[in-house]
Amino acid sequence: MTNYICVTCGVQFAASAEPPALCPICQDERQYVNWNGQQWTTLAALQENYHNVIKPIEPGLTGIGITPQFSLGQRALLVQTPQGNVLWDCLSVVEPETIEAVNALGGISAIAISHPHLYAAMVEWSHAFDAPIYLHAADRAHVMRPDPAITFWEGETCALNEEVTLIRCGGHFAGSTVLHWAGGAEGRGALLTGDTIMVVQDRRFVSFMYSYPNLMPLPASAVRGIATAVEPFAFARLYGGWWEKVVSEDAKTAVLTSADRYIRLITES
Fold it and tell me: For residue 189, which of 67, 60, 13 has the smallest C-alpha distance?
């Protein structure tokens, strides 16, 4: 029995004798099936050709990404706090070298993920570090590899420790979540967003979509809901789900201004 991994989205599936017939994550209208058709790999196969790069981002924050690029190309973030480290979003590759390096940084006390496209090999990471996984209950149906390590939280916020709070924003998925790190940006606060809030090419702004690859917008009500969800929190910096997707300064203004602009553009007659 093998835990197959979808080549397009990088999500790992429950063990099976043969590869699944299809990937429900990619069949969903927010994602897409590889133009070459549904393709599968395994963690063992990935470990032969890919490895993780670990880079410091700012004090207390470390990035982890796969090289060469695999699936959606995201990088995970390790938030280091006195109450324990939180891995934000996940990757399809975990290897002995990564485990050793992360343990040297204090290990992982919890894993939290923004939305199903970035679930990746979350159970492998959980088992490697004996860390619980926190997912919003609204996205329960999108879990392709169930495991007792997964905790489904409900409501609008979930405090993982004194510095780290998960915030349900919805929009991209019903349970799409961002992470507020109170100690980030030299104590001014940082928001880690995956692509629930997407940093755009002009990094003074962000955007919001139901589907990024298929260019499907969100309605004004959903964008307004995202802005309302994060408004109570202080954050000067915002980290999206990819290496250079960062709003370095005045990030809260960038989110609120971008939401107003988005709503104006889709509601103007």
Answer: 60
CB 90, CB 119: distance < 8 Å = yes
Per-residue confidence (pLDDT) for residue 127, from 0 to 100: 98
Phi-psi region at 264: left, alpha or beta (left = phi > 0; alpha = psi -120 to 50): alpha
Please say if the pLDDT value at position 268 is more than 90: no
Q: Per residue in 106-118, pLDDT tens?
A: 999 999 999 999 9
In angstroms, rounded to a whole number, what is the distance separating the alpha carbons of residues 196 and 158? 17
- Distance (Å, whole) CA 5 – CA 56: 28
Mean pLDDT of 86-95: 98
CATH number for the domain harbouring residue 166: 3.60.15.10
Q: From CA 250, how far away is CA 116, in angstroms rounded?
A: 28
Considering the entire predicted model, what is its pTM? 0.97
For 113-249, strand residue ranges (E) read 133-136, 150-153, 157-159, 164-168, 177-181, 190-194, 198-199, 206-207, 209-211, 216-217, 237-240, 246-247
pLDDT value of position 31? 97
Closest among 159, 156, 164 to 230, alpha carbons compared = 156
How many Å apart are CA 77 and CA 160, to the nearest integer?
15
Q: Render pLDDT for 26-52 as a digit per residue (tens, 0 to 9).
A: 999 999 999 999 999 999 999 999 999
The DSSP secondary structure of 46-65, one letter per residue, reads HHHH-EEEEEEEETTEEEEE
For residue 16, give its domain range: 5-267
Domain count, the chain: 1
